[in-house]
Amino acid sequence: MIAYDSILFDSDGVLVEPPAFETQTEAVRAAYRELGVDDPDQRDVDALVAGVTVDRLREICSTYDIEMTSLWDARERHDERSQFEQFRAGSRDRYGDVTAVTDLDQDCGIVSNNHHSTIEFVLWFFDLEPWVDTYYGRPKTIESLGLKKPNPHYLERALADLDAGSALYVGDSESDVIAAHRAGLDSAFVRRSHCSDVALSTTPTYEVSTLQEVADLVAD
């Protein structure tokens, strides 16, 4: 068993339930409406829900003759608002097994593709601030799209904060596994219900079903 100095976690799908696709879709449509686009093509809606690249964003803005910064700012504001509303309404919650990792001896951190401000909200709302030693989400900027996982940028920043000699990254997507390996970390893929059937092309160091299994893996 490898002894880890630090444990890093993704947030959505690992610590808290992922946002509902329908909620994200409505947030994107609200962003389009704000800029006068009342009936965008569904493909252009889906692109902004997740995984959009800078080039694809530029193409969309050219199609509707709107400024990139204006559309992205609106997209991020409405998406953030919708997430806060879901948490406050109780329609999105923390996973019950988070308590299995909040007493680990190792330093712990969060690295997410979600907004940095949303991670701050999650830590505050679920009273997780005392547990976390460092955390990174992305700023709500176009430039941040290039720094999302599988880019290991924010994982490497978290590792530098923790001065970790060895660390494990716990995620729920292939991009999490790839980012971990690019950063020189072991990875644990959590097969929650939303990713139970996902076929990975990259092999994680561990596959688990719960965070209790993660706690057992890293126990001194």
Automatic annotation (TrEMBL):
Q: What is its EC number?
A: 3.-.-.-
Per the record, a Pfam family? HAD_2
Gene Ontology MF terms? hydrolase activity
Indicate the secretion signal residues.
Answer: none
Query: Which keywords annotate this record?
Result: Hydrolase
Q: What class of enzyme is it?
A: hydrolase
Note whether Cell inner membrane occurs among the keywords.
Answer: no
PANTHER family for the chain:
PHOSPHOGLYCOLATE PHOSPHATASE
Tell me which family the UniProt entry assigns to this protein.
Answer: Belongs to the HAD-like hydrolase superfamily.
Q: What is the protein's given name?
A: HAD family hydrolase
Its taxonomic path starts at: Archaea, Methanobacteriati, Methanobacteriota, Stenosarchaea group, Halobacteria
